[in-house]
Amino acid sequence: MNKVKVKNEPHLYRDEVSNAIINTNKQEYESYLNNKKRRKVENGRIDNIEKELDDIKSNINEIKNLLLEISKNGS
């Protein structure tokens, strides 16, 4: 794989075969991976909160329907 330095970019190289840009800065790469992992955890947390909210809505609707049924039978 032949790499050519990208002008004015100290950690970037271009692969002459695929024309891809390659970042050789390991610290930036580690930071990217950590941020990706953090976003994945946050998204999982949000998904869990949304599921819990849907469950609460469902329970409230069920309680509401039971109360309506009780009020109809009681009068």
Helical amount among residues, as a percent range?
55-70%
Q: How many helical elements?
A: 1
- The global form is rod-shaped
Rounded mean pLDDT is 94
Biggest sheet: strands, sense, closure?
A: 3 strands, antiparallel
Task: Quote the distance from N terminus to C terminus.
Answer: 83 Å
Strand tally, please?
3
Number of structurally distinct domains:
1
Q: Beta-strand level of the residues, as a percent range?
A: 5-15%
Series of H and E elements? EEEH
- Uncertain spans, ≥5 residues at pLDDT below 50? none
**Widest sheet: strand order?**
1-2-3
Helix-strand category: alpha+beta
Q: Compute the gyration radius: what is it?
A: 28 Å
Précis, in short:
With 75 residues, the protein is α+β, with helices and mostly antiparallel strands. The protein has one helix at 26-74, and strands at residues 3-5, 12-15, 21-23. A hairpin with a 5-residue loop joins strand 2 and strand 3.
Please name the defining characteristics of this protein.
alpha+beta, three-stranded antiparallel beta sheet, 3 strands, 13% strand, rod-shaped
Description:
The chain has 75 residues and is α+β, with helices and mostly antiparallel strands. Helix content is 65%, strand content 13%. It has one domain. The chain has one helix and three strands. A three-stranded antiparallel beta sheet has the order 1-2-3. The termini are far apart.
